[in-house]
Each structure stands twice: as C-alpha cells, then as structure tokens.
Amino acid sequence: MQLILHFQSQPVLAKQSLCFSYPFVKTKTSLPSNLFAPKSPIFTIPLSRYHQIQTHNPILCARKNKRRNGSQRLTRLLLQLMPAIVSNFKILPQPLDLVVEEFCSGDGSGGRKSLLLFLLYGVLVICGLGLLFGGDVESNVLFCGLGFGLSGVAMVQWLDKIGIFAIFFGGVLLSRLVDFCTNSEARDLGYAKKVFQQISQPSVYIWNSMIRGYSNSENPVESLIMYREMLQRGYLPDNFTFPFVLKSCSVIADYRYGKCVHNCIVKTGYGLEVYGSTCLLRMYASCADMESALKVFDIIPKWNVVAWTSLISGFVNNSRAIEAIKVFKDMELHNVQPNEITMVHVVVACARSRDIDTGKLVHSRIRQLGFDPFGSSFNFNVVLATALLDMGSVQQMAQKNLVTWNSMISAYNQYGWAEEAIDLFSDMRIAGFVPDQTTFLGVIGACAQLGALAFGRSLHSYVSKTSMCKDTTIGTALVDMYAKIGDAGSARRIFENLQKKDVMAWTSMIICLATHGHGMEALHIFRKMQEDASVIPDQITYIGVLSACSHIGLVEEGQRHFASMVNLYGIKPTADHYCCMVDLLSRAGRFDEAMRLLEEMPIQPNVAVWGALLNGCEIHENVDLADQVRRYITEMEPHGSGVYVLLSNIYARAGRWQEVNRVRELMKNRNIAKNLGHSSVEMELLSS
DNA sequence: CTAGGGTTAG
C-alpha cells in the first residue's frame, strides 16, 4: 500500500511528489514497535506554512524529480523534513569529523560515480542506519530507500561541493535536528541529548538550543548543568544563552546560581541588554529578592512594557500587591502603554489587596484600552477574563478553559459554597474538560467542608491512580479532608506515604491529630517535624501545636512552644495564638496568668479570645471573672451568639437567673439569634 | 533561537 501525496496548491511543488509508504508497519512484527510509534499517534510534518501532512508512521522514500529546477525546492523540503524523520526513528547522526574523514580518505580524483557513492555512503553514515538496525533486513531495505532518497537530493544540489556538503549536514542539519527535538511539539530531550553528544564541537546556537529545551522541561536543573558544561568546555555564552539560563534559575528559584549568572552577564558585557536584564529582574523576583530586582530595573536600558510588567508581577508574586499597583501608576506616568498581560497582573494585585475601589478603576481602564473581554464578543482574552472573574467583577463567563473552571471552583469554596463547587465540577466534566491537580485541590477541599465521605473517597481513589498521588499538595488536601470527615486513620496513612513533606503537610497532620484528641501524637509529629531541617514551622503550625497542648492540659509545654515560636522563629503571635494560650491557661484554671497575657497582648483581643476565657470560666465556675468579661463583650460590636450562650450558661449554673435574663435581653436587643447547631452524617445504605 | 499572563492544599 502506498500513498503518494501531491502538493497542488503551490505551483512549484505540484511537480514534486513524496511517497509515504506503509507496507512494513502493519504486516511485519519484526520491527521494534516503538520505532513507528512516536509520542503522538498522528505524525505531523510541517512542510511549509501552508502544508501539513498528518499521517501515521510515515516512512520517507523521497523520489528525485526528473526536472532539475525543482530540486532546490525539494532540497529545502527535505531539510525541513529531515529532523522530523530522523528524530522519529531516533537515528543518531555520526560525529561530523567522522563524516569528513570518510570523505577525505576517498580518492579525491575519482570520477562522478565514485563521488556519488561517497555521498551516498556519507548520508548513510550520518543516518547511523547500520548502527541501530543492522540485523534487520526489512528495515535495512527501508532505510536504504530513505538514505538513497536523501542523497539523491543532496547529489543534485551539492555534487561539486563536498566542502559545502559537510557544512550543510554538519552545521545546519544538526542544528535543525537539535532544535527539532528540543523545541518542537514532539520533543524528546533524551534523544536530543544523545544527538548532542554526537557533536564534537557544538556551536553556541546548539548549546543554546539544548539549554532552552531543558529550561522549558520538567527538569530545568539540567539546563543549568548544560550551561556549566558549556563554560567548562570553554564556550562563550551569547546574549541568547542568558535568558534561557535565567529562566531556569527563576523556575527553580535558585538564588545562588542566579547570582553567578548575573556575574557572568556583567563580565561578558551583556548586562545592559534588554532581554538579559529583564530576565535578571524576573530571576531576582522569583527568588524573592525584590530589592535586587529593583536595582536591576534601574539599569534596564529601556523601560518598555515587558520591563514594567515584570516589575509589577514581581511585586504581586511576592505578596506586595500595593506596591505593584504603585508601580503600575508609575508606569502610566511614564506614558508606557500597558498591554493585556500588564493588566492581568494589575487585576490580580487588586484582588489580592482586596482593593475594590482600585479594582473598579482598573476595570474601567481595561475597557478604555479596549481589552475588556466582556466588552465585545471578539477579542476575548480568557486569562484576563479569569483574572477579572477572580477579582469578583464578573459573574458569568461564556467561554471557559480549565483554569477558569478551577478558579470558579476555588472561589465557591472560599465563599463556603462547597456544594456549588462540586456541582461546578460535574458541569465542567460534562463540558468535556479534564480536571487537573488544581481542580482536585478545589474539589477535595469542598468535600472536606461538606464532610462528603463517599465522594471524597472516590476522589482519593481516582487520584491515587494518577501521577498526582505523589504530589504533596494533593496529599495535604486529602489529609485535611479525612481529618475533617473524621477519619484520622486514613489521614495518617496518606501523610506517612507522602514522599515530600512540607510545612503545610506537617501542619495539617498536627492539626488533624490535635482536633481528634490525640494531643500527645500531635506533639510527637511536631518533634519529628523539627528534626527535618528542610521545613520551618510557621504560625499555622503553632496553632496546631498550641491547641494540642491545650487539649491535653500541658500548660508548661504550651508556654515553652509559645516562647520558642516568638523567640526562635520570630513569628508574631496572632489573635488565634492568644486564643489558644488563653484557652490553655483558663482550662487549667490559671486565670491570673490568662488575664496577664490578655493585658500584655499587643493586639486587640477578639471575641474568640474572650470566648476561650469564658469557656474556662464555665469549667471552673468562675462567675466573677465572667462578670468582668461580660463588660468587655458588651462594649464590643455585636457578633455571633457563642459568647452570650456561654455567659448565660455560666450564670445558669451558678443559679443567677436574673443575670441569665439580662444576657438574653442583651442578645435580643442586639438582634443576635442563637445559631442552630447541625451536623450531617453520610450513611451507607445496605441492601438485603 | 531571546523577556512579562489567570486557578492552587494546612
């Protein structure tokens, strides 16, 4: 079976034909199957801007055209095809010097025929046919076809120019090949590396291709290793090298390496290059050093949109949204026209700083600039739209992508509308979107809120069958979900199986144990966490630790942890921490200390803190203190019913019914209704 | 062959 493709829309190409034949694929099983199975089942070959061939398992048997004038076109075509073909077959080219040697050792004076033979042989060597498939007759035949076809074209073009021939294949083709397998859609960096290793003296361009490929890969560290090797072997990086290297530094946030690269940029004189310096800015911003980022900004030779936008995004991503907005205003003063990307960052800045007024101004500026995705049906920018959606200035979106769905699900979660979040999840699946890690983070969180046991478990089992099961964020969400559902055992198992445990993972486990009444175990986990030098407890960790202490009544231990939180880790205690401490002390009946702590508090005690104190008063029937607390509470703004109920319970217990009535009056006057308690349990229905 | 974009667990 043979398929001949004619290119008809382009007059010159119309005369050309390429044969794509399939015979060996379907009938012969002797061929290694992976040979014909590239990453995607459909193989797309870009022929020109207007032509694309989509085919399964193509084998090229290029045929030389009879008419000479078409050959140049076909050569170019083949040049475009070669990387695709060679990389599809995972053929390793031979080192250039080896090829050159082949040519030089031939009889230079020979006639045309022997020259042709040499050329043919050269191409075969380059394709490394014997190297990979020597034993297989069918594939040899096949590759002979390939080799012959290629050489046929090459012969016409380069018949008398052996020197050029060598450069042509050594320089251009290998560059194209490396480019193709590092940066095309069907890239394969493992193969790229092998090809690269065949090149004895890679040009800077090829180095750059490799570094770029790795910088966009899963392991950007590889690009840094590549870069180091480049320097060690005495190659001089150029202005293209630095952006790629710096991108890797940014992605993995390697501050020290980034600074070394900065040094190198300065030394090689590319420090004042627009691209390079903008990348430097981003690198410092990614490494959370905004001060250096600002210094770099100052030396950027031209403050264009990208430079400004990078600075804005730096502030946004370092939780300095207000400064980001300031920079944006500055940019407007400098009369630099913002683009959609700029506005995305500014919108995020408004959302993060909860600055609704500026948010409205920004939205109208977006309209003014003509970027508003909701202003007209064309020019719909999903990213900007999602950012606006997240800021809350949009209710409905007609066009959604994965991130939009995720954003909506998490927004519903934050409003506490867990059921709606789950509904949205099923809508999204009906709409044909494949949920990703962020989606699951949201839906698992919704299950945690709802206590949706069965659905939560099904999510868990789904996730464990994917690569997400190793992910720390997913694991943490699951730990929290099981904790909230009441299944501390499952939470524990997931936690133990986590390969990497970060602060959040440890913290969620500690809080889980503390809330399930396993205070000792929670503290044990905390000690294990402290043994791990790679994690530093933060304020939320200490909420768990302190509440664990308070559950088991370890006052001194709690006080020690509180002190080390402040002195060792420099964490400023929040109202929640004081709440824990007051709870700890007043449960133990140590009211003097509790009151002293309250007086020393540098922040205003909130209702929860008073509530904790009242809780202790109830346990120890300390009505006098409760009286004092009542005075504070009545001075405060009206709030939830909790403290009033506590107060009235305390008075009731002491038999002070008048006071009970006064508290109830107070509640009535302040229009506070007692919250209805509710809980839900999911039950399995057993049949027969 | 080069720089900047939305969602994200405790």
TrEMBL record:
One of its GO terms (molecular function) is RNA binding. The keyword Endoplasmic reticulum does not apply. PPR repeats lie at residues 203-237, 304-338, 401-435, 502-536, 574-604. Keywords: Membrane, Repeat, Transmembrane, Transmembrane helix. It holds the Pfam family PPR_1. GO terms for cellular component: cytoplasm. GO terms for biological process: RNA modification. It comes from the Eukaryota. The keyword Amino-acid biosynthesis does not apply. InterPro entries: E_motif, PPR_At4g14850-like_plant, PPR_rpt, TPR-like_helical_dom_sf. The chain crosses the membrane at residues 115-134, 141-159. Belongs to the PPR family. PCMP-E subfamily. This is Pentatricopeptide repeat-containing protein. It comes from Pyrus ussuriensis x Pyrus communis.
